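Journal club prep — side note

Before the paper discussion, L.F. wants everyone to see what a predicted structure for a comparable chain looks like in token form. Sequence:
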Amino acid sequence: MGQAGGLAYREGAVTLKDFVGRTRDPDWGTLRYARSLRQIVGPEEARKWVQKASQKTKAVFDLRRTSIDEIGRSVDISAGFSSRHPEAAFEQREVILRPKVKTHIVLDHPGDVEWMHDHQELIRRAVTAPMIVDAEPRRLTGGRYTVAHITNAAGSGDPFLVVVLRYARFGSSDSHEIYTMYRAPRRYVFDASDRMKPRWRRLKKQ
């Protein structure tokens, strides 16, 4: 639904049913998908709701600003990883977004930039309370590890938001960092039989 969609719903401009779209697939039959606010009310009206919602919420980051932004405190995933990878700190820490990573996101995922600015609460949610994470961390050159955090990208053309964190080394006082972030289609997480791919695991609510 997103920040603007949620505001439009709370103020009675749209209903929950408006966000449910249906399409017909020759193999799978009738499928449901999340409609964006833009699809429901049109681009001009949707833009007004985005502007109104942005005025109500303080921005967490700005991809066009050359500054280090604090996103929030990460979820603690140490129970799942620390015993196998003791050199990395998977406990809860502040997560930052560096200018060089902002540049990478703008250049590599230009179609996601405006959406990310309009849905900053989802970025924070992916960091602090993701639905799904990597089943195993990925080791970078230099010994640091990354873990992809996934949450729903409600009201988006793609159903998932992926925020990849680079975790600090154990024993350091460093913050964790956003390594990259982007939207992803359903097939990124689930196979053709609608089973979660082995790469991922659901994260229990803490």
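L.F.'s comment for the group: Residues 4 and 53 are 5 Å apart (CA to CA). Keep this in mind when we get to the figures.
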